[in-house]
Amino acid sequence: MYQIEIAGGRRLAGSVPVHGAKNSVLPILAATVLGNGTSVIHGCPNLDDVDSSCEILEYIGCNIKREGSTICVDASTIGKSCIPEEMMHKMRSSITFLGSMTARLGTAEMGTPGGCELGPRPIDLHIQALEKIGVAVKERCGRVETRCDSFVGGEVHFDFPSVGATENIMMAASLARGETVITNPAKEPEICDLQAFLNKMGAKISGAGTDCIVIEGVPVLHGAEHRVIPDRIVAATYLCAGIMTGGTVELTETNPEHIHAVTAVLRDMGASIYTNKHAVLLYAPQRIKPIKLLRTMPYPGFPTDAQAMMTAALTLADGTSMIEENIFENRFRHAAELSKMGADITTRGNVAVIRGVKRLVGAPVTAMELRGGAALVLAGLCAEGISTVSGTSHIDRGYGSLVEDMQSLGAEIRKIGKA
Ligand code: UD1
Question: What is the pTM of this model?
């Protein structure tokens, strides 16, 4: 696998478009299974996780055509109701096939999913929700099996608003007989995007983005055409790169409303930020201001997926910052790597204390997971000297063109070694 080599110290300047959202396209690809026909999905980013979703779709009998960033899925030929373990292990979001395959085929069998090592990632909320709408679920030896005995809809309440479990139940309930009401669902923009796609397929869903989603089941769904929303985490990453390098960065093809929590923090750090409907412009301050306490929360709170990049940015603040990670247990693995570059970070449980330093220094570091890996690249962009980031397969799961985009903004960054 290639490494990323960065000669740090270049001030980023320029404009770059943001690709489609990984966390939208993956559940939407899983949802195509629900339709008896062809769905056309535009704006699909070129990511390893998208390839993995297509592999699953092909394995279960769908016909896939890819042309640039458009993926056509003909789900009328679907034949298999099981997914092999090695396919499931490649990414966490493979679990969203559970809801769609169960609803379409009446039964599904798959291994428990993989994804980044961020601490325990159980699927109990997915299972409980499916059971509430009449799906019989058996979980044993790392495999889950479902059967629709009396698929009638029902009331689902989430004690915690799990994104994946909300998506699974929305998909499954779309084809249940009767109404499903989900209280305390996840409210992420990707949930709204999934609702939009499912409704284009003929589903009757309302309330995504609010505290209550109502789904009136329909007997059949058809294929639909849809463009996925821009990736708000890629946008957050590029804005952090801008502030860390003292740069001026404009993002186009983005949705500023979706990154409100991130731009609010960047403003508190001293950045000047201007937005219009589809663009964000950031001017970095002379020196980054520290943030007393930043807490990750479900949307519309500060996203856990942008925590690592913000940790990297705050290593350069003029004072001490604190970050509390409230979504995943094990999400500070980048801290030790950042310390190799001269950062001063202490972690204890779900809290990181970041004492700002004047400069970072280039070093060989390793990405342990997707967003932590992006944080290391950002640190390399502003560190003195050369940094080399290994473990880039993690980064490829979520960024379609990180190296190329940073190059276009003026960074001295390249891929070295074998692809
Ligand atoms: C999705 C995103 C991921 C993001 C996360 C939180 C996708 C493909 N991935 O992941 O990038 O970091 O939302 O915003 O959209 N939990 C349980 N039981 C369950 C399900 C979840 O305890 O059945 C816990 C998890 O362990 C975790 C928390 O709930 O601590 C959040 O998980 P969830 O919202 O489900 O995240 P994902 O859908 O996996």
Answer: 0.96
Express each pLDDT in 387-403 by its tens digit: 999 999 999 999 999 99
CA of 61 to the centre of ligand 1 (A): 28
How far, in Å, CA of 236 to CA of 65, rounded? 31
93 lines ligand 1 (CB under 6 A): yes
Choice from 162, 169, 330 to test ligand 1 binding pocket (greatest atom count within 8 A of CB): 162
208 lines ligand 1 (CB under 6 A): no
Q: Give the pLDDT score at 329.
A: 81
Number of C-alpha atoms within 13 angstroms, CB side, residue 317? 26
Is 148 one of the catalytic residues? no
Each residue of 144-170: b (16+ CB within 10 Å) or e?
Answer: bbbebeebebbebebeebbbbbbbbbb
Interval between CA 377 and ligand 1 midpoint (Å): 24
Residue 102 host element (H or E): helix 96-105
User: What is d(CA 260, CA 237) in angstroms, rounded to the nearest whole number?
Assistant: 14
**Count of beta carbons in the 10 Å neighbourhood of residue 38:** 18
Q: Give per-residue pLDDT as tens, 58-76.
A: 999 999 999 999 999 999 9
341 contacts: CB under 8 Å, gap ≥ 6:
360, 361, 362, 363, 365, 376, 379, 380, 383, 387
